[in-house]
Amino acid sequence: MSKIARIGIVGTGIFGQMHMKAFTQLQNEGKAELVAVADLIEDRRQKAAKEFSVKAYADYKEMIDKEKLDAITVVTPDAFHADIVTTGLEMGCHVLSEKPLATTMEDCNKIVSVAEKHPDKILMVDFHKRYDAYHLELERIIREGEIGKVQYGYAYMEDRIEVSRDWFKNWPAGSSPFWFIGVHFVDLIYWVIKSKGDKVFATGRREKLRSLGLDFWDNITAQIVFKNGATFTVDAAWTLPDGFEAIVNQGLRFIGTEGIIEIDSQDRGAGACLKGKSQQSFNLGFYSEKRTPDGRMLYGGYGIQSIMEFVYHMNFVMNGGDIRKLDGLYANAYDGLEVSKICVGVHKSAETGGQVIDLSSL
Ligand SMILES: NC(=O)c1ccc[n+]([C@@H]2O[C@H](COP(=O)([O-])OP(=O)(O)OC[C@H]3O[C@@H](n4cnc5c(N)ncnc54)[C@H](O)[C@@H]3O)[C@@H](O)[C@H]2O)c1
User: What residue segments make up the domains of the chain, in order of their start?
Assistant: First the structure.
């Protein structure tokens, strides 16, 4: 019988729910065992434990040790991934870290150095944009040269203001619209054009959220020059009005010497105006639910798929597969570092009012 991973989740907040759903489904399919969750907040961990019938811990190290886990997933706020990721690896676990890998170069370098000491363990960063069917096709088209050499492009990702105003007001430190959502498209561009960042220039505003007493950037616009010469502009913002038709607005364009690709990732052609509400649109590509005849839920969409891929890779390794065969199939520590480096440069530039940052200096 093949081995399946015993998994624990660190962080049972908003996005921890997605991890719990993905692993519960894999458990139903006999492909993973969700054993426990850890959270510093008692109510949250107890609620999650009850809902998903797992054990709850305040201390994730105790969870790894007592439950003899094969893997953990790190779903804590952006600035608090590094210690948990490195401790997880050092305690013998495969690790899935939520994006971004970390928000400082110091943390990223520390993670890379620990990951290098544990080459038999998977460290994957959850950059789910890589699993969107539209982006898989984008990557294929560009890899096969169908728009020629990519010269420039644009991506935008903007959240409705409730994300910054209501979801993250309690985050202690270390996030911004660029860290929270811009990072997704930075990774997507890096993955599609297969080139590291060279230099960046960024500006932003802090007025709307400050007027609400929140010390966050409203928006950041970055221009990123990659080592292969391609230049991309990325907008990230946290201030779309409450009446906007979806929680996220997003899209991209890639322009090459022989062609152009444009994707509206928000408007996927589904709209509704429900009783007492304004017009809404749905990105069912990200998350979907379906009930089975025996009453279980099946979860789908690229938000779930990327978490599941971690388990498929881990099961391959745990059953004797050569981990090197997985190279390039998921975002690893080096990818996480390259993407965070661009974002660190972007924030440094925005903080200095638009200084050009040479990324080799970071
Ligand atoms: N992939 C995506 O689409 C996506 C979407 C949303 C959030 N995220 C990422 O997921 C992460 C979590 O975001 P969220 O919205 O769930 O945040 P959240 O604040 O809702 O939840 C984070 C939880 O982590 C817990 N926590 C913090 N430090 C801990 C520790 N040392 N041990 C145990 N628990 C600890 C907190 O108590 C909290 O319950 C962030 O990195 C975020 O960027 C990813």
Answer: 5-128+289-332, 130-282+341-361
Here the tokens at position 274 are 């429900």
Strands (E), 18-142: 32-38, 55-57, 71-74, 94-98, 123-126
pLDDT at 173: 62
Tokens at residue 251, please? 């899209």
Q: Where are the beta strands (DSSP E) in the chain?
A: 5-10, 32-38, 55-57, 71-74, 94-98, 123-126, 150-160, 197-205, 219-226, 231-240, 248-256, 260-264, 271-273, 279-281, 288-291, 297-300, 357-358
- Ligand 1 centroid to Cα of residue 15, in Å, is 6
In short, whether 132's Cβ falls inside 6 Å of ligand 1 is no
Task: Please tell me the predicted confidence (pLDDT) of residue 170.
Answer: 65
Amino acid making up residue 123 = L
The two domains 5-128+289-332 and 130-282+341-361 share their CATH topology (first three levels equal): no
Topology (CATH level 3) of domain 130-282+341-361 = Dihydrodipicolinate Reductase; domain 2 (3.30.360)
- Of 39, 60, 124, 181, the one to substitute when testing ligand 1's pocket (max ligand atoms within 8 A of C-beta) is 39
Query: Which CATH number applies to 5-128+289-332?
Result: 3.40.50.720
pLDDT of residue 215: 87
Q: Check pocket membership of 336 for ligand 1, CB cut-off 6 A.
A: no
Residue nearest to atom 40 of ligand 1 (CA): 77
- Does the CB atom of residue 82 touch ligand 1 within 6 A? no
Residues of the chain under the 50 pLDDT cut: none
